[in-house]
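Input for the complex:
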Amino acid sequence: MNMREITARMKQDSSNMAAMSLEQRNAALAAVREALLEHKDEIFAANQEDMKAAEEAGVPESVRKRLKFDEHKLADVTAGIEGLIKLADPLGKVQLARELDEGLKLYRISCPIGVIGIIFEARPDALVQISSLCIKSGNCAVLKGGKETARTNKVLFDIIYAAAVKAGAPQGCLVQAEQHNEIDELLECHGNVDLLIPRGSNQFVQYIMNHTKIPVMGHADGICHTYLDEDADLKKAIPVIVDAKTQYTAACNATETLLVNRKAAGEMLPAIANALRENGVKIRGTQEVAEIIECEVMTEEEFKTEYLDLIISIKLVDDVMEAIAHINKYGSHHTDCILTENDETAAKFMQLVDSAGVYQNCSTRFADGFRYGFGAEVGISTSKIHARGPVGLEGLVTYKYKLFGQGHTVGDYAQGRKHFHFRDI
Amino acid sequence: MNMREITARMKQDSSNMAAMSLEQRNAALAAVREALLEHKDEIFAANQEDMKAAEEAGVPESVRKRLKFDEHKLADVTAGIEGLIKLADPLGKVQLARELDEGLKLYRISCPIGVIGIIFEARPDALVQISSLCIKSGNCAVLKGGKETARTNKVLFDIIYAAAVKAGAPQGCLVQAEQHNEIDELLECHGNVDLLIPRGSNQFVQYIMNHTKIPVMGHADGICHTYLDEDADLKKAIPVIVDAKTQYTAACNATETLLVNRKAAGEMLPAIANALRENGVKIRGTQEVAEIIECEVMTEEEFKTEYLDLIISIKLVDDVMEAIAHINKYGSHHTDCILTENDETAAKFMQLVDSAGVYQNCSTRFADGFRYGFGAEVGISTSKIHARGPVGLEGLVTYKYKLFGQGHTVGDYAQGRKHFHFRDI
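Predicted:
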């Protein structure tokens, strides 16, 4: 079967997947957890083959760390599934209940999106998290993971799929795509697939967005800012800036640009620059910044750069309004932070910066589904439509309107024989 | 200025539009209402020119009715604005409030989408409704109405714009596109425009969806079904079927296909066919239907047809499950109804039919923002992402996450020095 036929079958099964009760979905998750623990030796063996192949292929150690699936990662993902089982049901929530007229009742009820295609990087724990989130939210999913962990992914997927189906999920609940060309096939499956969630490089996500008619949720780049206000507390600010830049530079929520209030620059910038340099960060700045601290001089256009590395851009601004204008122009509407003790200035920043996350006095690195208490995430969305920021269970559901009548016709209302009374129930 | 420059300026202004208080937005709406009443003679004069030109161009009377803007329509739209002023603020709603750890507080707050492009048919009242919905929801909007009411649209727009800006809305709050080629320019404005809402023919909406990178909300076709169950009450069913088919045939929510339970067909179908014929409806059906009532015989593939006319397709099915399978395969996921007194059968239908609206014992024509009590609508969405069904104020907002810390860094949590406690506040 090709991807079009596979997803057509999933589409048919998606109504049955949506109809699974909370008890059935939680039982399926519990079965998945049990099966992972039971088959851990197979998983570890497959992962060791992947790790060996990666080492032989010269994959750098920092990347290889993410490919690993050991006792520690297994404990993490099974704890994640336990947490997910405890979370409230995202389905069947009554979001609106209104009597339009005598005997004519309207309800808006949350329900799954249907069939979701998720393309993610080589991280075996992501496969477990994503498939668990889809089971809990009643969605069918096509999963395509990075090729560097193909062996681990296959073993994990087979275990998860068998356990879910045995616990009552329909045959078409989950499908694994193993070949790279299946990504292009998947992009053609509009009508069958309701949503695509691509994770990966800017270039890859852009490619997906430009080559499909299916709605895409996610983010292409993460150009996050931290703005140091004149009323900042330097003792708080330094560790936050260092964390935002260095705690994990390859992440989309790492800070790329530091904006500094001109009135604070002379006093605060040297100490910040020292702290950044001590943590291995290379500084680039405008001519004006170079007159205060030692740094490489950069141009205005370069503020659109996502470094994903131990490099930071620095620029001075007159006030919070100029910082906001810079962020709305050069940023990627992901996550931006203000460091200030002045709550009025902070309120202005948080109102006017047009980003999924706006922070006061904490690291941009907090933009993450686990850290928000969502259990896990399928991705982070910079789109404003449907879901914004880290996407957990709530971002995986939509709703339908249910209307119950007793033979009601529109003609009676159009011709004034009856009138709506719109009473919330 | 071209559309790219115009929308870039609107994008800059959108933060200020979003920051307008509820009082300011309601005051702007009140000013718009006053101005429309004050300048009614200019509006009516422009509309009479449009009406005369339409008559000379041979536009049929049924269409000309929609172009009209008279005292009656003015009373409708000003009453609509009064209703909108009374509606609760869709902005600034706290959707989530959670303490992640001591002193680290996360809030999810509703906010406008930003800049919306709306392309709608020649109906002057739609221009007033759409611009009012955008003002109430704090969105900037590019409006392009049908050319047949160009003169009325221009006068209405100028009145609304002047009143809104005088009441404190930013310069870039609303823009009217008057030339047809500006639609193609607008489609290229990704990055500046956050959402497009096209209204019109299937072909037109498909064109928009295929020629832009901007998210599109709406629906291309409306193939709505009514399923007559064996447990239907024929006295209720006949007027509902007649209303669903004939009350306004050109609407997307008119029923195009009637599915009839085989066990009920012999007894009920002749009476239904008579009632439909008395209302001028032409019947097409499968061979099996033609053996019970007189009708033109049609093929299976033709069930994908949206007639938008006094024509109906009829097919027999074994049971509710076959009806559901037919609807999910041939329908457009818009609005579908079951006629039955058996609530268990109805529950199955409403759970498994994958449409924005699922109805029991009432006409599919109820799928409409006004009839749902939303005041008005900017369109009806068959997309499952973001908004589904009639789109009122709630479909015009998104949210942002606000995180307040006291110098919190991610490193402390990653290294186990601190632990999240996720306490809802």
